[in-house]
Write a structure and sequence with these properties.
The chain has 118 residues and is mainly α. Helix content is 54%, strand content 10%. The protein contains five helices and four strands, in the order E-E-H-H-H-E-E-H-H. The strands form two sheets. The protein has a two-stranded antiparallel sheet. Strand 3 and strand 4 form a beta hairpin. Helix 1 crosses helix 2 and helix 2 packs across helix 3. The two termini are 16 Å apart.
Length: 118
């Protein structure tokens, strides 16, 4: 599920997964690597997430003897929890339609070479 806010911000599964990865690994680099993205891409997404709302979602610690790292602010933890809740409630609300789509899907279809939707 992707949410388009009135200020132009977009919050979808990729950003939610990045937040979850940062919470799990304590690192933007490790979270990005876990999602198969470069450090630069992960850092740019983390920066965008921090600018989307009035409060930052991610904090960073600069390196040094104990090393750097990142984590979620209280707001970031609440944001991630709400994203997960909205996703679960949305899936529950459309479960009958999803079951119908699965039952109607062609068993021999292969997504390879399919044209991407716009």
């Amino acid at each position: 599920m992707r949410i388009d806010l009135t200020n132009g911000a977009r919050l979808g599964p990729g950003k939610a997964q990045l937040l979850a990865g940062i919470a799990e690994h304590g690192s933007i680099r490790a979270a990005g690597a876990g999602l198969g993205m470069s450090y630069r891409r992960a850092w740019l997404l983390a920066d965008e997430i921090n600018r989307m709302f009035r409060e930052p979602s991610i904090f960073t610690r600069h390196g040094g003897k104990s090393g750097g790292g990142a984590g979620l602010t209280d707001f970031g933890e609440t944001l991630l929890a709400r994203c997960r809740k909205m996703e679960a409630e949305s899936l529950k609300a459309v479960s009958a339609d999803l079951e119908w789509l699965e039952a109607a899907a062609a068993a021999d279809f292969s997504g390879e070479g399919a044209v991407a939707e716009e």
